[in-house]
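ugh ok fine here u go
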Amino acid sequence: MLENRSTALISIIQSGRALVLALTLALAIPATSHAQPDAGAFFRSIVGEWIGTCEQSTDGEKAGDKYFHIVVKQVDQRTFSSEFKYYRLDEASQTPLHIGDTTIVSTMEPDGTVTNNISGEGTILVDEKPKPQEHQLTETLICAGDNALTGRITGKISISGIVFGLGKNGEVRDGTSTWTLDNGVLTIHQSLKAGFRILFFTKNFTVEAKSTARQGSDVVRLMTEAAQVAAGPTDRPS
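structure:
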């Protein structure tokens, strides 16, 4: 009887040791988890030079395409800067005209979001006429996949040349933005709703802009090739 009790006690002790060992190993080995998308990785992947085309419309009225050159740099571990220069092709001289600039400072926040501080100037189509504009915007983005960011835009915009000075002190609200990188193509799609008010007058605009770019630096060549495509084939003398 004593021998049986001793054997049972030893079995219990061994089982207890095995349980402790199993728990220890379970705590020591981290559980497998899917890596979260990294906004910093997205911006690191677009560091360099890009050239592309910007399609823009105001209240559904399409403006002429603009061309741009971007230089994206990493400033430090959490900060990136993007310098945009915009051009259009002068129809008479077939040379590029510099028509605007935008600077974006992108900060990777501790909570995983990205804050883009956007400042610049250029033109915007209002009542079928291009008008000078300046903007100060804030874009807050979150990861929407390995190669995509999405978020909202707020800020201020000022448009010159509108009657009664109505274009001053415009407020951007309900703006959305999407950045994607797919097969070497960088796409930035922004939709802005801007409201202006002075005394009893109000005016609202909805501006859509889609920028598509590939890596490169020769924006003049891009513009020339686009003009040739738009002109269509030319007849050669036989």
